[in-house]
Amino acid sequence: MELYLDSANMQEIEEAFKLGFLTGLTTTPTFMHREGIRDIDATIIKLSKMVPILQIEALGETADEIVKEAERLIGLGLDKEKTVFKIPVSLEGVKACKRLTDQGYKVNVHLVYTLQQAYMAMAAGATYVCPLVGRLQDQGHDALALVEQCVKAVNYYGYPSKIMFSSVRHPEHVRNAINIGVHTCTVPWKVMKMLTENNFTTLGTQQFFEHTKLMTMCVKDVIKPYNPVVRLDQSVLDATIQMTESGFGAVTVVNDKGEIVGIFTDGDLRRRLRENGKDILQKRMNEFEWRKPLTIEAGALLHEAVELLRQKSVDNLVVTDQGKLVGMLDVQDLLQLNIFV
């Protein structure tokens, strides 16, 4: 199934065709009007150089006017092999379609809402026959049945026409198009971007990234350069300032030799404030009893760090290099990497 972008937005067009496999672009005067485009001819020439195949309108009230407009557009420098002229279905439209296709031009007969209209387009040799699904559904009609009938007619009678599924409103429409077996589908960029999305895929991909990081990254690759530390002779207020400035939920407590004696957390702060009030802020670290904190070597894999955090139900690990304090690993550091503890 051919896949076209349906747009006149230059930014969308540039982004979409980076995919590298779109068949071409369909656009309309209405799209260009919405984008504030004033010089349609210049825009058409610009688009023709950006996309593999360009489908543009050839408007006229009579077959002569339609053919003349198509020839005028080719005269601007468009490639006959890479341009498809869109013509609204009508008696004059299918007459123009026949004349143009006999001359080797490609034609899309669109604004098709009935099988009879589609048949006239096929009989006139239209390269594409284009029912508008979304618009027809808006009126309460079974648009999918119409598209299926068009596909069956092409296949049964052997017409060279391709049925184009258009007026796509959501990803389900693309699934419908595939199931029906249409030959081509033109899709707005906002819908096209959703075609690869699925929550299970997102979760699975995140898990792959998470597990790769756990097995390949070390603790030293994650910890911040700022190392929040307080000495035993400093106060709870000093520790609070350190936590606030560093963004950590804890600080490492060291003695005058720089040896690790404990860890003071924001949980400790809240608990002591509840028990002793704000006077606790003036107490020194050496007035408390300390337990050796959980440590991990800087060269350890993140997998080991996560397992330790989970087993001990803590949010922080003191990081050492051969026993020497080098920093702190906070659970928030891991969350920023989409690693969940």
UniProtKB/TrEMBL annotation:
SMART domains: CBS. It comes from the Bacteria. PROSITE patterns: CBS. Residues 223-280, 285-341 form the CBS domain. InterPro entries: Aldolase_TIM, CBS_dom, CBS_dom_sf, TAL/FSA. Pfam families: CBS (PF00571), TAL_FSA (PF00923). Keywords: CBS domain, Schiff base. One of its GO terms (biological process) is carbohydrate metabolic process. This is TalC/MipB family fructose-6-phosphate aldolase. It comes from Thermonema lapsum.
